[in-house]
Amino acid sequence: MRLLDATLVAFVVHGAHVFDSCGGIAGWCQLNGIARATFYRHLQRVRREGSWTARSRRPHRSPAAVPQQVIEAIVALRAGLGADNGAVSIHYHLGQDRSLGGLRIPSPATIHKVLRGRGLVTPQPRKRPKSSWRRFAYARPRDCYQIDATVVALAGGAQVVVFEVLDDCTRTLVATRAAVTENATDAIAAISTAFARFGVPAIVLSDNGTAFTSRRTGGGTSSFTRVVTDAGARLIHSSPHHPQTCGKVERHHRTFKAWLATQPQPATLAELQARCDTYQHWYNTQRPHSAAQMPPLQAWQRAGQHPGALGGPQHLPLQRDAIVAIRTVNHVGVIRCTGRTTVSVGKHRAGARLTIVHDGRHVTVYDTDGTPLGHLLIDPGKHHQGRLTPAA
To answer: What pTM value is reported for the model?
Structure first.
C-alpha cells in the first residue's frame, strides 16, 4: 500500500494530476492491481487527516498476554533467586506464590521470553539447543550415585577440594565433603555419608582419579573400591578422558560454584564445610531441578512412596533409554548383549561376570572392578559383533 498512499498524498495534499495519464482512478487501480474500495477508503483517510502515517498493528486487546503483576513477580524472583535460577526455577516458585490472586502461571518458555524482553538473559546463540539432547538417566533413586571432587579456593588463596555425591535419577545431593586434597580417605568419608543417610545404591560411578582407583598407582584393589563393594554396590569407572560419563556431577560442580560465589569466601576448611552443608540443604529442598521439575529431595520422596521405586544393591538399575545387565562370559570368551547379539571379550575372562550398558546401538562392557573394557557400535545385520574397541 505504500504506492497507493504516496500517490494519494501527492493527489490530495500537493494537487498533482497523477491519474490523468492512466485513464483516471479506475484505470490506475486496474493497472496497479488495487481494489477501488481500498482506494477510496485510503482516500477518505488522507482527506480527513491531511497526510498518511502508519498506525500500530497491535491489537486493542491481548487476552493471552502475561498480566503486569505476573511480569513484576517474575522480575522480582529473578533478582531474589539470583542469575543462576532460570525460567524453570521461577516457574516453580511462582506456583508456590499465594500473592498472585489465582492468576495463571505462564509456562517456562513464556517466562524465558519475559526475562529476555527485560534484558535479564545473556544471549548464547552458539549454545547447543536442548531439543538436540538425548537424556541418559537411571529410572529410580539409588540406582546409581555419581561421585567426583572439584577444586575450590579459600580466602587466603589456598586450593582445596569438595567431594560431591549425586543421585543420578533425582539429582539429589546425597553427600558433600570439604577436603584438603582429592584423596581416598575423604572420598570414603563422602561415600560412606551418602550410604548412611540415603542408602546404598546399585552402582557407584566415578572417574579414574587416584582417590577412587589404584589401577594407575600400582594395581590391586583400592580402599575406596573395597568400601563400595563391601557395602554391596558395584563400582564403575568412566572411560579415561571422557567426563561426559559422569556428566551430571560434573555439571553440578558449576551450580555449586555459582552459589558459592554469592557467599562470603570461607577462610578455613571448617567454614567451607559449613557452606557445603548450607548449600546441600538449599539445593535439595528449595532449588527445583529442570530434569525433575521440582527440588531434588522432593522428587526422591515422591518416588519413595511407591513400592519397589527405590533401587539398591538387590536390584539391577533401571534406565528409561538404556539396558544395564550383568552377563557371564562363556568358555570361548563370548558374552551375550541383547537377544542373539554377542561380543568377544577374550577366553581369559571365561566365567567372569561383566556389566553391559546397551544404549541404543552402542554397547559398553565393564570388568568386575568397574574398569571399562571397551565399546562398539552394533551392526544390526549380523549376530556376532566381533571384538570390542579398547577403552582409551
So the answer is: 0.60
